[in-house]
Design brief:
The chain has about 325 residues and is an alpha/beta fold. The protein has one domain: Metallo-dependent phosphatases (Purple Acid Phosphatase, chain A, domain 2), CATH 3.60.21.10. Helices cover about 25% and strands about 20% of the residues. The radius of gyration is 19 Å and the shape is globular.
C-alpha cells in the first residue's frame, strides 16, 4: 500500500527549501509518488505588451491547482533593468520555481551568465529535487554547430554532465530544455543528446519520465524510442513571416510595442499543468484553449505546409503518455 501523501503545504515547504540548492542530493526526496507541476514557456516579455498579466494568470492558476513546483522553459525576458518587475512577480510565487534559458533571453547583447544572475538561477544547467523525480535543466544555447545567428547546441561537457547525472539518479528524471530534441529543426546535435537519453532508458527502463521543451510555439506530444517528448506551446503567440504581419491591437499599442505586428497573438495566455504518476509511469498534461487575436495565421497567408494546423493553434492539448 502506498504511503499517504503529506499535506500540500508540507510538501511545498520541503520542495521550497530544497530548491534553493543548485544541485540536490538524490536521497533527499518527498515521500510522494505523484508530482504536479505548472509549465510556462515563451512568454516573450520584450515583445508582448501584456506579458506581466499573462504571467500573473499563470501563477494564480498554479496556486489554484496546488502544484508542487513551477517552471518556465525559456524566452522569458532579457536581463534588462526594465524587466525587474517581471522577475519580482515571478519571485513572489511561494512555490519552488525554476528557469530554463531560451535563445531570446540574451537578446540585446547580453551574455548567458548575465541572464543566469538576473533570473537567480544556480547555473546555466543544473538538477533539482522534484519529489519522486529528478529535475534536469539543460542549456541549448552552447556555441557549436553550423547555424547562423542563434545557436542550437549542447556541448560535449554538458553532454557528459547529463550522462553522469542520469546514470547516478535513483528515480525517474524529467528533462527541461528550450530547443526541442525530437525534431530536425531543434538542436543541431539532437542525435547525440537523444542517444544519451535512450541509452539511460535502456540501462534502466524508468530513467526518463518525460522531456519538455518550448521554442517552436507549437502544440504536440510524441514518443520516440520509448521516451515521451512534450512540446509546450507559447504562452503568447505564433511568430509570423513578413507577408503575414498586420496590426490587430489598437494603434497606440502597436506604436509602443512595434513587434506586435509580427505575431499572431493568443487572446488569453496558455500554460500546462502536468501530473507525473511514478507508480503508473504516466505523464498527463492539462492544457488550455484560447483564440487568435485577429485573423488566424492561414487567413493571413501563411502556408499550411510550414504551419500545420495540427500543431499551430491557440491551445495546449490534453495529453497522456506512458514511459
Amino acid at each position: 500500500m502506498l504511503d499517504r501523501l503529506p499535506p500540500a503545504t508540507t510538501r511545498r515547504s520541503l520542495l521550497a527549501s530544497l530548491a534553493a540548492l543548485p544541485c540536490l542530493s538524490a536521497s533527499a526526496r518527498v515521500p510522494s509518488r505523484l508530482l504536479r507541476l505548472a509549465i510556462l514557456t515563451d512568454l516573450h516579455q520584450d515583445v508582448m505588451h501584456d506579458a506581466p498579466e499573462r504571467l500573473k494568470q499563470f501563477l494564480d492558476a498554479a496556486d489554484t491547482a496546488d502544484v508542487d513546483l513551477v517552471i518556465q522553459l525559456g524566452d522569458f525576458c532579457q536581463p534588462h533593468p526594465r524587466n525587474q518587475p517581471l522577475i519580482d512577480l515571478w519571485n513572489s510565487c511561494p512555490r519552488p520555481k525554476f528557469h530554463v534559458l531560451g535563445n531570446h533571453d540574451m537578446d540585446g547583447g547580453y551574455r548567458r551568465e548575465q541572464t543566469v544572475e538576473f533570473y537567480g538561477m544556480p547555473s546555466r544547467y543544473y538538477t533539482f529535487d522534484a519529489g519522486p523525480c529528478l529535475g534536469v535543466v539543460l542549456d541549448t544555447n552552447d556555441p557549436g554547430g553550423t547555424a547562423k545567428g542563434y545557436k542550437k547546441w549542447i556541448a560535449e561537457d554538458q553532454q557528459q554532465w547529463l550522462q553522469t547525472h542520469l546514470a547516478q539518479a535513483d528515480r525517474p528524471s524529467l528533462i527541461f530544455l528550450h530547443h526541442p530534441v525530437d525534431d530536425p529543426n531543434g538542436i543541431e546535435n539532437r542525435s547525440q543528446v537523444r542517444g544519451i537519453l535512450e541509452q539511460a532508458q535502456k540501462d534502466r527502463p524508468d530513467s526518463i519520465a518525460g522531456v519538455f521543451s518550448g521554442h517552436f510555439h507549437q502544440d504536440y506530444a510524441i514518443q520516440l524510442q520509448g521516451i515521451s517528448y512534450f512540446q509546450i506551446n507559447s504562452a503568447s503567440y505564433v511568430w509570423l513571416p513578413e507577408n503575414a504581419h498586420r496590426e490587430t491591437y489598437p494603434a497606440e499599442l502597436h506604436h509602443k510595442h512595434p513587434y506586435l505586428k509580427n505575431v499572431a497573438a493568443y487572446q488569453t495566455p496558455l500554460w500546462a499543468i502536468a501530473t507525473v504518476d511514478v507508480d503508473q509511469r504516466t505523464v498527463s498534461i492539462e492544457g488550455r484553449q484560447s483564440q487568435w487575436q485577429g485573423p488566424d495565421i492561414w487567413q493571413r497567408g501563411v502556408p499550411e505546409s510550414e504551419y500545420p494546423r495540427d500543431k499551430n493553434r491557440p491551445a495546449i492539448s490534453n495529453q497522456k503518455l506512458s514511459w
